[in-house]
Design brief:
Blueprint (H helix, E strand, L loop, with lengths): L2 E4 L19 E5 L3 H7 L4 H21 L4 E8 L7 H24 L2 E6 L7 H14 L5 E9 L1 H14 L9 H7 L10 E4 L18 E5 L8 H12 L9 H8 L1
Parallel strand pairs: 1-7, 2-3, 2-6, 3-5, 4-5, 6-7
Length: 257
């Protein structure tokens, strides 16, 4: 695991001059810091969540511009149900609002929406809208947007194993590839880069199987302020890394000859 931090005190907002070397195919983001962003400004937590939602628009556009093909966002974890009921209700309303307001434009711009996580516990009307959004956009191929809502990495693995058993697969036939295909992200490549905003150094039960060889980038910037240039900085940092997958530098050099 490679870890890089980005200092929030850097106030240089000038455009990044260096072109991206190679863009990661799949980027995943733990969108953290909405509450602290709001508290820092003397605003209610709801203002932070709403501003974080607005920022997602910018990052979606930037992902397409930077040639990212799969973007996975951590929107609501299985642990988030333990938050105050009022905040949980707000997060549900925000998801519903985004589906109502943004779906048409996302579809017109070729974004394929996929839900990863459990439906249990999500209000029926929102479940219906999630399924309709996924169905409407299923043939789009400009960008795949995985929305991890009511998602937990351990829960995902448990469900994958349960489904393998239900399908009558013998123990000897279980492989890593098979388990990967039974995950919510089955059929998609593992994330190349996982970004976490707000200065926290935790995975928080996010893509713990798929992220085994991902590069990690930690930023001190709260999610509502993690703009296009911050995103570009993370992608440029990724482009300058040597991905090892357990190999030595000498082996990597041999592979590139």
């Amino acid at each position: 695991m490679t870890i890089v931090t980005h200092d929030q005190t850097n106030t240089d907002t000038s455009p990044v001059a260096v072109k991206l070397g190679r863009s990661p195919h799949h980027v995943a983001i733990i969108m953290d810091g909405n509450g602290r962003w709001a508290k820092q400004r003397g605003l209610p937590r709801s203002a932070g969540h709403r501003q974080g939602t607005e920022n997602l628009r910018r990052i979606l556009r930037a992902a397409v511009e930077f040639d990212v093909k799969v973007l996975t966002i951590y929107a609501f974890s299985t642990e988030n149900w333990s938050r105050p009921r009022r905040e949980v209700s707000l997060l549900m309303r925000i998801l519903e609002m985004v589906l109502d307001r943004e779906l048409k434009e996302l579809n017109e711009n070729g974004v394929q929406i996929r839900h990863i996580g459990e439906m249990d516990g999500i209000p029926d009307r929102i479940q219906k809208k999630i399924k309709e959004a996924c169905e409407l956009t299923r043939n789009n191929n400009e960008l795949i947007l995985n929305v991890a809502f009511n998602y937990g990495g351990r829960d995902e693995i448990v469900h994958a194993v349960q489904n393998i058993i239900r399908d009558g697969v013998s123990a000897e036939d279980v492989t890593e590839e098979m388990i990967s295909n039974y995950l919510y992200t089955g059929g998609l490549p593992d994330p190349d880069l996982i970004i976490r905003t707000s200065g926290e150094f935790r995975l928080s039960n996010f893509l713990i199987w798929q992220g085994s060889y991902a590069e990690y980038y930690y930023s001190d910037v709260y999610w509502p302020d993690f703009d296009k240039e911050e995103f570009r900085g993370a992608l440029e940092d990724y482009a300058n890394r040597r991905r090892r997958f357990g190999k030595t530098d000498e082996q990597i050099d041999e592979d590139t000859v």
